[in-house]
Write a structure and sequence with these properties.
The complex is a heterodimer of chains A (513) and B (247).
Chain A lengths: L6 E5 L3 H14 L7 E6 L15 H9 L3 H7 L3 E3 L1 E5 L9 E5 L11 H7 L7 H5 L2 H6 L19 E3 L2 H14 L4 E4 L2 E6 L5 E6 L4 E3 L2 E4 L6 H6 L4 E3 L8 E8 L11 E6 L2 E7 L3 E8 L6 H12 L6 E7 L3 E3 L3 E2 L2 E3 L5 E2 L7 H14 L8 H28 L6 H7 L6 H10 L18 H10 L16 H21 L3 H11 L5
Parallel strand pairs in A: 1-2, 1-11, 2-7, 4-14, 11-20
Antiparallel strand pairs in A: 3-6, 4-5, 8-9, 9-10, 12-18, 13-16, 13-17, 14-15, 15-16, 18-21, 19-20
Chain B lengths: L5 E3 L9 E2 L13 E3 L5 H4 L5 E5 L6 E6 L22 H5 L2 E5 L5 E6 L5 E2 L4 E2 L1 E2 L2 E2 L1 H29 L3 E10 L4 E10 L1 H5 L3 H9 L3 H10 L3 H11 L4 E7 L3
Antiparallel strand pairs in B: 1-7, 2-8, 2-9, 3-5, 4-5, 4-13, 6-7, 10-11, 12-13, 12-14
Classes of the chains: A alpha+beta (513), B alpha+beta (247).
The complex binds flavin-adenine dinucleotide.
Chain lengths: 513, 247
């Protein structure tokens, strides 16, 4: 059937729906006869309403769809995120902290500094401090750029913290006013399929039957198209990643000018971990935990203890989820993007990055005709099955290296809960630090530096002495260690405080150049 | 203005102040740029390379004449005479300048830290509470210069809107072999200008923007002069200066 793909129907108006709509509509904006994008969302089904941390990839995504960074910062109460700071993940002691900065290790991929760090007993014992200046910038409360730095450019790598609801409205507004996305506000109550198994139309409560050629399922956990209508099974990963619940809250600042951390705090708890994100006018916190190991009441208590008695939190919410993903993301003429395709847990805040990657891949390799759809689907599914697999390994890594003694943490270290692929990597890394060889695929989203930050941040031991023969270029390594040092000195002087920059952006905005 | 020594001009506070003249413009000795308004582009382009730079406090672009090739370098200053024929409005007015008062209004200010101002020498600013003739001329000049500032801001907005500005980077090689890069300057993108649609071009013409644009582009040949001055007078002479094409 050589039918061309003219109508794209997106079901769901959460962040994934609007990001997908924007990326596709923008891609097609200047092309004659390109497919039309329609988005259907239901007022009566709420969006998930969380997702306040993004990856640096969001900069490119927003630039690509034509939203200015100033609009993002001012309209979504956004701030900058340069790193995750892990507290208490190894032993739970006060001194037990490490950073996973967005800056790669200095000199990467030209040189793998981990080798040299491991050999050198004189160097800073903290891996992230030795190989990147970003931990120091974070600790000093500094922003990653200046008011005179062009929008989306940086002096230190960054993503964002933002208000999820405001972010969805900014995207929506942009799609409707600038990108010509057609909008239907109605609930999908039925899905029509044809004999070949393709979706031919969705039926909404009040309006009509909406026909389309390609359907994008952004309906959140309910996965009404891919999961329900097309019966693509859910592959649970709860035996690896135990967390299935979250209690979230907003916490006011003690004063209006309180400093805003430029990183996500992530502190380990008896049955999970708490995220802590600083926006201009409030913090967003959430305890992510395993209901097998902790009751909701206990969890709420734990979160309240974390918040302390100084501030009065508001908007407590409980969210349940299941770690896992659909067997495939693309079946016939239906692609799932966002929670409908799967979700693991918020650790390392990679869900929106998956959405960006999926929507971009779909736009860049868009099937022009029905005939080309199976091969597009095959490629897409291959990429995402691989990525789910890898991100599961990466998230699990955070748990298996812990030495905490609570049941939850001990269960997390049970060999039966650790994927064999991760076990094999851990075995390799006893002898050699993670390197590009371990992440040869273009599809890898987390690469050697990320693994190194977590491994050595958590005290993993690589037998560096035995790997001495691999050190062929210590001159270059020293150069990069020096550069790192100079960079830290220079940036510490030049960069403004995080809140100061946020205030300035509200006042003056960034330049495009 | 954040500097506390920039004060709003006031006949009672400043009634005893006397002004001296400095034909050498010593205050620019360690200044790499001076602000330039759009009406000055043509005369200034006979002496200085003209670029845009960003205000550190606000990130906003404004036009400047380039005096040196490194931070705090002014190749036009010497202790015998200013090494160029054109002197910018802002230099001629100094230590007077237009600045924002606390209620966000632009008004004449003075730099009280300027050695040109004192209580014992020079011409009194005020005579029995009324501005002296010199001060009056300067105030008029400031007023005009303020109008020019507004026009220059509109000019920059127009350039930005049409995406006619681009960052420039200059690569410099010292005789010693060392290299460095001059960053943070912006210029008019000549090829974007070439592709400007006719109606935008004619609007630019109507606003009187085309002459300054061409003056700015021509002014960059003055870099040869800066190289020469640097070779002759600087402690760190250079062998070459090159435009680095950006990504
Ligand atoms: C606790 C928690 C913390 C998280 N933290 C992060 C984080 O820090 N960083 C990050 O990147 N991600 C995070 N995520 C994930 C992130 O929230 C989601 O990836 C993101 O919000 C996208 O959600 P979505 O658009 O897929 O689904 P939703 O927001 O659930 O949107 C679903 C949409 O579908 C519509 N819909 C559903 N059914 C119908 C129907 N029948 N008819 C019409 N419309 C329908 C709804 O109206 C809604 O508009 C977190 C998730 C959780 C659970």
């Amino acid at each position: 059937m050589n039918k061309s793909v003219n109508n794209i129907i997106i079901v769901g108006g959460g962040t994934s729906g609007w990001i997908s709509a924007a990326i596709l509509a923008k891609k097609f904006a200047s092309i004659q006869g390109a497919p039309k994008v329609t988005l259907i969302e239901s007022k009566s089904v709420p969006t998930i309403g969380v997702g306040e941390g993004t990856w640096p990839t969001m900069r490119n995504t927003l630039k690509r769809i034509g939203i200015t960074e100033t609009d993002l910062i001012t309209q979504c109460d956004a701030t900058f995120k340069q790193a995750s700071k892990f507290e208490g993940w190894v032993t739970g002691d006060k001194s037990d902290v490490y950073f996973h900065p967005f800056n790669s290790t200095k000199g990467y991929p030209r040189i793998n500094l981990a080798n040299f760090w491991g050999q050198d007993s004189e160097i800073d014992a903290s891996f992230s401090r030795a190989v990147s200046c970003q931990e120091s910038l974070c600790e000093q409360g500094l922003a990653p750029k200046l008011i005179s730095t062009a929008e989306y450019k940086d002096l230190a790598n960054y993503g964002y913290h933002l208000d999820a609801a405001k972010f969805a409205s900014l995207l929506k507004n942009h799609c409707l006013t600038k990108l010509n996305v057609k909008h239907i506000e109605d609930q999908v109550v039925d899905v029509k399929t044809c004999i070949a198994g393709n979706i031919s139309a969705v039926v909404t409560q009040h309006h009509q039957t909406v026909h389309g050629d390609l359907f994008i399922d952004c309906s959140g956990f309910s996965s009404i198209l891919l999961g329900k209508a097309l019966d693509v099974p859910f592959i649970s990963k709860q035996h690896i990643l135990f967390n299935d619940s979250a209690i979230t809250a907003h916490v006011p600042y003690a004063s209006e000018d309180q400093s805003i951390p430029c990183f996500t705090r992530s502190s380990a708890q008896p049955a999970g971990w708490i995220w802590d994100i600083g926006l201009p006018h409030r913090r967003g916190v959430g305890y992510v935990y395993s209901s097998q190991h902790c009751s909701d009441t206990q969890a709420k208590k734990q979160l309240q203890m974390y918040i302390g008695t100084q501030s009065v939190p508001t908007e407590f919410r409980k969210i349940s989820f299941k770690a896992g993903h659909r067997e495939v993301s693309w079946k016939n003429n239906c692609v799932a993007i966002g929670l409908s395709a799967g979700f693991l847990e918020p650790l390392e805040a990679s869900a929106l990055m998956f959405v960006e990657t999926a929507a971009t891949m779909l736009a860049d390799q868009f099937p022009a005709t029905y005939e080309s759809m199976p091969s597009c689907a095959k490629r897409f599914n291959h990429a995402f099955i691989y990525r789910w697999h890898r991100v599961i390994d990466f998230l699990k890594l955070h748990y298996v290296l812990s030495q905490r003694s609570e049941q939850y943490w001990r269960d997390n270290r049970e060999a039966s809960s650790i994927p064999t692929s991760l076990q094999a990597l851990l075995e390799d890394w006893k002898h050699m630090p993670p390197s590009d060889i371990d992440f040869a695929s273009q599809l890898d989203l987390f690469r050697a530096p990320s693994y190194q930050y977590v491994l050595y941040g958590m005290g993993f031991k690589t037998n560096f002495a035995a790997a001495k023969h691999t050190l062929d270029n210590s001159e270059l390594a020293n150069k990069f260690f020096d550069l790192r040092q100079q960079e830290q000195q220079k940036l510490s002087i030049r960069l403004p405080k995080h809140r100061e920059l946020i205030d300035k952006i509200h006042q003056y905005g960034f330049m495009e150049i | 203005m954040a500097n506390s020594h920039i004060q709003a001009l006031n006949p009672s506070t400043h009634k005893d102040l006397k002004l001296n003249v400095d034909p050498l413009f010593t205050y620019t000795k360690t200044i790499q740029f001076t602000p330039l308004h759009v009406n000055e582009f043509a005369p200034a382009s006979t002496c200085y390379p003209i670029y845009f730079i960003k205000d550190r406090a606000t990130g906003k672009l404004f036009s400047v004449a380039l005096f040196g090739l490194e931070e705090k370098e002014n190749l036009f200053y010497s202790d015998t005479q200013w090494r160029a024929s054109y002197v910018s409005e802002s230099m001629q007015c100094w230590p007077f300048t237009m600045a924002k008062t606390s209620d966000n209004q632009w008004s004449p200010h003075i730099d009280t830290s300027s050695p040109l101002l004192s209580n014992d020498q020079g011409q009194l600013l005020y005579k029995s509470g009324r501005p002296s003739e010199t001060l009056n001329t300067t105030l008029q000049r400031l007023q005009q210069s303020y109008q020019q500032k507004l026009q220059s801001m509109a000019f920059v907005e127009w350039l930005l809107e049409l995406k006619l500005l681009k960052p420039v980077r200059l690569g410099m090689k010292y005789l010693s072999g060392e290299k460095s890069i001059i960053n943070g300057m912006y210029s008019i993108d000549a090829s974007a200008l070439q592709q400007l649609p006719p109606d935008a071009l004619s609007l630019g013409h109507k606003h009187g923007y085309l002459a300054p644009i061409y003056a700015l582009l021509a002014s960059h040949y003055n870099l040869y002069d800066l190289i020469r001055l640097k070779k002759t007078f600087s402690k760190r002479p250079i062998s070459s200066l090159q435009l680095i094409e950006s990504e």
